[in-house]
Write a structure and sequence with these properties.
With 115 residues, the chain is of the alpha+beta class. The chain has four helices and eight strands, in the order αβββααβαββββ.
């Protein structure tokens, strides 16, 4: 677990934000603008730019866990509302007979949560 905690410390301060097709940074999701203009960053760009949304953070996390052969699953959650469909992507993993929620994107829930 020490290595996973170290990885979390390395990425926990990546700021929330997304880049459009022209390379402009946006710090909030804005309906159609996001849908039409979003381009997903690769994992090297996330570290360099220090901004990402949950989809991109999960890719960074998946890369880390895959390279270390740690079993994981990514979850995509959609909340159906009258106006829009807010969503969140997160990673869970299994280690030492326990399940964990690895959260580096959602500010209010950041951490490694043990279950």
């Amino acid at each position: 677990m020490k290595d996973i905690k170290q990885f979390f410390q390395e990425i926990k301060d990546i700021n929330y934000g997304w880049y459009d097709k022209k390379g402009n940074l946006h710090k909030k999701l804005k309906g159609e603008n996001f849908v039409k203009l979003y381009r997903m960053q690769n994992t090297k760009s996330i570290k360099k730019n220090n901004h990402a949304i949950c989809w991109e953070m999960c890719e960074l996390e998946r890369e880390y866990f895959s390279k270390r052969n740690i079993p994981y699953k990514t979850l995509f959650i959609i909340l159906r509302r009258e106006k829009g469909y807010p969503c969140h992507t997160l990673l869970t993993f299994y280690k030492n007979d326990k399940y964990y929620w690895f959260e580096a994107s959602w500010d209010k829930k950041k951490g490694i949560h043990e279950y």
